[in-house]
Design a protein that fits this description.
secreted; mainly beta; apoplast
Length: about 180
């Protein structure tokens, strides 16, 4: 038994430096991280002739708690709906607070035009939409933003009844810089 333990200990001691080296090399250093700030506008249209947000479940209560909305919203350079489209916000949001004070956002910003064309950012978090400014997480990305992390400050810049909105996204994203 003692010989077996010594053999196991020797094996662990031999492998440990290799494991430490591999784990430390899988993380980018500060010098290898890029940071980008993107300002864009999401146009969430629940009514009208060009609807981009559709409730797929409706709550059986007066607060809307539990309602799920599927979105394919235009993402533009500016707040005007005629502004240049840079992508789409595709996914869902859920009325997730009993008092109807926030939505839980889960969607991809799919860049279809411009500098970031072909890349995506994954947005997730509680949108406390009654607040003027609020934050949600950027949890990942693809393309230029592979392994991205960051946050988005959201601000409602236009809200016209019944519930069409233009939301400003001020995104701060950190991501590993790809080797050339």
């Amino acid at each position: 038994m003692a010989a077996s333990f010594r053999g196991t200990k020797a094996t662990v001691m031999a492998i440990l430096p290799l494991l430490m080296m591999l784990s430390s090399s899988s993380f980018a250093s500060e010098e290898e991280m890029g940071e980008t700030n993107i300002v864009c506008y999401m146009h969430d249209l629940l009514t009208g002739k060009n609807v981009t947000a559709v409730p797929v479940t409706l709550a059986a209560n007066s607060t809307g708690f539990g309602t799920i909305v599927a979105i394919d919203d235009a993402v533009t350079e500016g707040p005007d709906r005629r502004s240049a489209i840079v992508g789409r916000a595709q996914g869902i949001y859920i009325a997730s607070a009993l008092d109807s004070s926030d939505f839980h956002l889960v969607f991809s910003v799919v860049f279809t035009e411009g500098k970031h064309k072909g890349s995506t950012l994954e947005i997730q978090g509680a949108d406390r939409y009654l607040q003027q400014k609020r934050e949600v997480s950027v949890v990942s990305g693809t393309g230029e933003f592979r392994y991205a992390r960051g946050y988005a400050v959201l601000e409602t810049v236009e809200l016209d009844p019944p519930l069409n909105a233009v939301i400003k996204f001020n995104l701060t994203i950190r991501y590993p810089v790809a080797d050339s």
